[in-house]
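Hi, here's the filled form for the chain we discussed.

Project: internal
Contact: R.S.
Residues: 350
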Amino acid sequence: MNNTLSRTAHAALALVIAVVLAACGRTTESDTSSAAASASGPAAEGVRQALPQGWRRVAGPGVGEAEAGEPVLPASVRSDDGIDVSVKDVSRIIAGGDDVIAVLEALGQGDKVFAAPTNAVSAAGRQAPHRFLFNRTTGVEGVLSLGGSLFLGNSVRRHTALAAKLRAVGQDAVIVDDLQPAPEKVRRVAAAVGLAEAGKVLAAQVQAQLQEAAAIAADAPGEPRVIMISATGAGGAPTVAGADSAAGQLIGMAGGLNIGTEAGVANYSALSNEGVLAAAPQVILVTEQDLQTFGGADGIWSAYPTLKQTPAGEANRVWVMPDLQLKYLSVGSGAGALALSKALAELSAE
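And the returned structure, exactly as it came back:
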């Protein structure tokens, strides 16, 4: 499929979208309620609703796993906040997010997730003995009261101050930042729990899938315009995936032009109905959990009425992906990128 917009028009649209996004404000989706449901692999398979006619599920079945055996402890690692940590006990892990939990599951360590975010929907996260709200204001007393043996955070931005306070009172704390590439995150999570060698195997699987996806994207004849919408963020208002979101990065790797990336905005940001129309997406992308949170198709069209007037809306081209293959940089990223690259290549060839 040939893009109907010239480079000049693209640049103009980027400016329009950026202005609209700036006017609407910005937020980070990880600071609000977001949930995930995986279609396959070690992470949980959520209850999937039937899709409207013409909509499509895009999911990669090959989420990696690795036989890990027993952790080798103590594990000496450098936390992503720049602190060297010697991890001595991984039997009760307080996990900062589904991205690190998914790695633990893939390594056969899901039963060691002792506490997880309230919005976690990975299998180990949902089954954790304790659920806790993790954000910028999470207090050290609350984390210590859980009785965990290791705090495994997933955000330098949100967890650095907390990790420092935990270490000051003797609690091991390691941060594996959520913004780094998926294979590196896999390696670092595995090393933090004493499974460095298995982590290398698992990371290699993810890397191979990402490379295959990139090769498919490189051979595709076009770069379809993609808008990834979320039901959360911006104070509870619907948002679109921006430049450094996991979804934005994956869309680019898979050969699509992410609307939020084109606009040069970060994280998840609100987008006005005028901005949606100006963006002219050819594909509307949404995760399984966000589809449920929107309230199905009617909720999506209600949240963004002008979506129906875009090329994607007029073609009824809405693709639904597992959250852990789109919204997080983790073990599911390779499978998600591969599935999306194939779907986008098919669209480009039409």
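Let me know if anything looks off before we file it.
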